[in-house]
């Protein structure tokens, strides 16, 4: 009996050890990966626990010297955080949480907030795996957020950490991507359908929007598109800025061939309901398991407009392209039909940004109170599960904010560190519920210090946009909801004589002396002016309403995670971390930190194997 009680106590201890959460360890599979350098010598894997707010990195570099990984910003390396580690020739390891004092000098942080999980070296490469909190309490550590993160990697050829520009790399990555689908469980009857522009000669112009109209797959019953990915010609990748697929109404009379989307023939700008999109830096995208784009019913589109935006800034001649979008579809239907709602500022010159602005905020308002009338049927709550944000070169940050009955509900999505070269569809951690009558506000922040003339809204890369695409379910008959300011009010507030013709007011604004004071005055006037809101259905019907820009309440920074120090010096046996863990040596050139010592794990595994039979028999 005493043995049974003892065995049960031991077994409870064993189970307690193995039930301490789903924290990623030294050998856990990490879901995400990227090369960080052009020669593919620096490879990063990572994963995270969103609830516990812990992220795990594994950096593998082709060197037998030191390696480092951290977060920087778009302007300077100074102040960047960098976790540094390596294996000495005698097999001892070193590891510490540091920051850059200047462009090439490192200093250990006062608080060590990275926990070493694995550090190995062979004759070719060094691999370092560690965990850190999203938000540490150390001011030298940069927060891991849902923004675009500029990941900094560096390494040396010896074990003396010192920055070298030739071995330092920065890559923009959205680290907190949420996978809402089972990528291993593709439907057996998956069919692929390519939508591509055909052997198009790219003009020798800075910007070209090429459009063509193509049929969607012809099916005898309802199917769902569940994934899309870009089709890019390898040698032309740097010239393709974005690819959009617009659904056409079945009553539309469509042109043939390839034409300029927004040129002299307005037929090539028909169809404005986006159903799929890719932009520079993005990858393929698969919808959540219960959502798909419906095709094959009388309500579904039969044709699409394919839009490819080319940026040929070097004016290269004689380049042909066959870019487009690949669709994956199946007869295994999902629970919901997907819709896309375009929000932001109407894309035309009333949207303006002054030159020389350190920061200039623009706003586009959407009021959903007319959705039911335009939808032709009651509008249910819609669930936004992912988004794509879009500005051009002057964009620095963007956010989408939800209001209900005049009160801010939440910031649905944001990127305070926007990178024009990384535009991708991003999943929300939890769907955002939009109810009829809610208001949605898009805020874009621009910087034009490098410009000496006005920037206007428009299609060209040197013009600007402020757009957010919400991917949602269930689908309704609304394609876009865009706002723009009262330009007459703005002109008057700047002390200029306003005209009833909006375009004449833009000419007036072009002649304003854009001092810092006038830039702030223009920003304030744009926010305080009445907004016109244009709502468009999938069938191209348009209604408008008006509204006012509400204030945005910033989301406060969450609590930080205290640290007890995670630095590892050569010869250390029990380094501490923000979750203390002992160190186990396994090989002369390997040191691994585990939540449970390896010997303990082996003992516990053996204990369980002989305890269970004893408990079952009552011995």
From TrEMBL:
GO MF annotation: an example: copper ion binding
Source organism superkingdom: Eukaryota
BP GO annotations: dopamine catabolic process; norepinephrine biosynthetic process; octopamine biosynthetic process
Gene Ontology CC: one annotated term: extracellular space
Cofactor requirements of the protein: Cu(2+)
Keywords, comma-separated and alphabetical: Copper, Disulfide bond, Glycoprotein, Metal-binding, Monooxygenase, Oxidoreductase, Signal
SMART domains: DoH
First and last residue of the signal peptide: 1-21
DOMON domain mapped to chain residues: 40-156
Family under the similarity heading: Belongs to the copper type II ascorbate-dependent monooxygenase family.
PANTHER family xrefs: DBH-LIKE MONOOXYGENASE PROTEIN 2-RELATED, DOPAMINE BETA HYDROXYLASE RELATED
Designated name of the protein: DBH-like monooxygenase protein 2
UniProt lineage: Eukaryota, Metazoa, Chordata, Craniata, Vertebrata
């Amino acid at each position: 009996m005493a043995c049974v009680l003892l065995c049960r106590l031991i077994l409870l201890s064993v189970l307690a050890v193995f039930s301490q959460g789903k924290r990623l360890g030294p050998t856990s599979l990490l879901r995400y990966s990227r090369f960080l350098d052009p020669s593919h010598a620096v490879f990063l894997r990572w994963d995270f626990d969103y609830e516990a707010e812990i992220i795990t990195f594994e950096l593998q570099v082709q060197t037998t010297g030191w390696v480092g990984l951290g977060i920087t910003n778009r302007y300077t390396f100074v102040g960047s955080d960098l976790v540094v580690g390596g294996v000495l020739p005698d097999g001892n390891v070193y590891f510490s949480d540091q920051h850059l004092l200047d462009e090439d000098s490192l200093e250990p942080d006062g608080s060590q907030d990275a926990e070493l999980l694995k550090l190995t070296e062979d004759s070719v490469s060094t691999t370092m795996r560690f965990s850190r909190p999203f938000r540490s309490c150390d001011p030298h550590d940069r927060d891991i957020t849902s923004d675009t993160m500029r990941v900094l990697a560096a390494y040396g050829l010896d074990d003396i950490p010192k920055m070298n520009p030739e071995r330092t790399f920065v890559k923009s990555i959205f680290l907190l991507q949420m996978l809402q689908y089972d990528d291993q469980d593709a439907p057996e009857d998956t069919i692929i359908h390519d939508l591509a522009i055909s052997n198009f000669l790219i003009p020798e112009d800075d910007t070209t929007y090429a459009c063509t109209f193509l049929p969607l797959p012809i099916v005898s019953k309802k199917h769902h598109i569940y994934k899309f990915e870009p089709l890019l010609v390898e040698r032309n990748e740097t010239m393709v800025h974005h690819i959009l697929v617009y659904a056409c109404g079945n009553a539309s009379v469509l042109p043939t061939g390839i034409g300029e989307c927004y040129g002299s023939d307005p037929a090539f700008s028909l169809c404005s309901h986006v159903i799929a999109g890719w932009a520079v830096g993005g990858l393929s995208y698969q919808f959540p398991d219960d959502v798909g784009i419906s095709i094959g019913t009388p309500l579904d589109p039969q044709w699409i407009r394919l839009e490819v935006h080319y940026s040929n800034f070097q004016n290269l001649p004689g380049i042909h392209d066959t870019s487009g979008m690949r669709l994956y579809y199946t007869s295994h239907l999902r629970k919901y039909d997907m819709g896309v709602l375009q929000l932001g500022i109407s894309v035309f010159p009333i949207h303006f940004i002054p030159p020389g602005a350190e920061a200039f905020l623009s706003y586009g308002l959407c009021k959903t109170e007319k959705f039911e009338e335009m939808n032709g049927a009651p509008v249910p709550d819609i669930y936004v599960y992912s988004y794509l944000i879009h500005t051009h070169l002057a964009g620095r940050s963007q956010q989408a904010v939800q209001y209900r009955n005049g009160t801010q509900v939440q910031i649905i999505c944001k990127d305070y560190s926007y990178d024009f070269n990384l535009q991708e569809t991003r999943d929300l951690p939890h769907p955002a519920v939009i109810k009829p009558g809610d208001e949605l506000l898009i805020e874009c922040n621009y910087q034009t210090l490098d410009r000496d003339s006005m920037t206007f809204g428009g299609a060209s890369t040197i013009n600007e946009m402020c757009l957010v695409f919400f991917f949602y379910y269930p689908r309704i008959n609304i394609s876009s909801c865009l706002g723009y300011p009262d330009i007459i009010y703005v002109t008057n507030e700047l002390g200029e004589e306003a005209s009833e013709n909006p375009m004449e007011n833009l000419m007036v604004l072009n002649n304003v002396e854009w001092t810092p004071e006038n830039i702030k005055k223009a920003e304030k006037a744009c926010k305080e002016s009445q907004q016109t809101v244009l709502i468009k259905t999938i069938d191209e019907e348009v209604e408008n309403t008006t509204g006012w820009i509400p204030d945005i309440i910033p989301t406060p920074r969450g609590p930080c995670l205290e640290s007890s120090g995670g630095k590892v010096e050569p010869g250390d046996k029990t380094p501490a971390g923000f979750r203390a863990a002992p160190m186990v040596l396994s090989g002369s050139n390997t040191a691994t930190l585990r939540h449970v010592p390896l010997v303990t794990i082996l003992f516990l595994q053996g204990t369980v194997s002989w305890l269970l039979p004893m408990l079952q028999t009552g011995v």
